[in-house]
Amino acid sequence: MAVDGDAIVRAVGTLPLVGNEEGLIPAFGLYLTRHFATFYNRTSFALLHAAEARSPEAAAVARASLVEAGHVCAFNTFGGIMLSQEWEAVVMPMVESTEDWVHGIVGVVNALGWGRWRVEALRGGEELTVSIANSYESEGYLADYPRRDSGGVCFLATGGVAGIMNLVYHGDIAARPALDDAFYQQLFHAPGRFNAREVACRAAGADRCEVVARRVAG
Question: What is the pTM of this model?
Answer without folding.
Answer: 0.91
